Amino acid sequence: MTIFVIDDEKVILEGEAALIRQCAPQATVLAFSSPADALARLKVEAADVVFLDLEMPEYHGIELAKHMKHLCPRLNIIFATAYQNYFEEAMNLRASGYLLKPLKTERVMEELGNLRYAPETQHTGLYVRTFGSFEVFYDKRPLVFKYQKTKELFAYLIDRRGAVISRDELITILWGGKTKRDSYYKQVQKDLNDTLKSVGMEYILIKQRNSLGLAADQIRCDYYNWIRGTPEGINAYMGEYMRQYDWAEQTHVNIDRKEGRIGL
Asked: What CATH number does the domain containing 162 carry?
């Protein structure tokens, strides 16, 4: 489990980080006196829990929490503050907890034992997140593709849940129906293969003549967990699905219907 601790007062920050390390000795605890630094780190390294101060000059804690939740919808945010008057706003953000300073060992342990969301980064190996923004992790870090279209290709194959898709359909999805994109498609397919191969996962690609698919049963994914009806999958859905891709809207609507969010 990875825990961020954010407080602009360095003496308080050091004390809180030390206390949290005692409460969670197996966790990686990272301390940040700069909210901007913490936000930048979250863009390249997933966290499970954030202990977050509220009144800071660089970012107010509520605004920082909104930015962080945008990046990681299932992030457990525990506000740690000397002020009681932000409790309602914090709960509206689906915060995991609200602690008043000074932090006490028993209260920190209680919050860590009752997190709103099960830690995502307990997963090692490949893990795919579709709820919120689409992202692919390997050993807790985002998997980096050479091209953005490679990431979108992988996202579409994940959405199709193991179906083998023709090259023509994939080109239409990636380039909006534009023709003569064969050479670009070959580069993107090669990048997908090479990127997965770099982490020993190229075997999940199903390659057939002029078509491509994924071995869905070999992939850990929040959407697949939701389909199976696991508590982890059901709790992961916050009303958004692959929000950066327009073609994902139909699946989004189908999920909302099954969740009872919209009429049948």
From this structure: 1.10.10.10
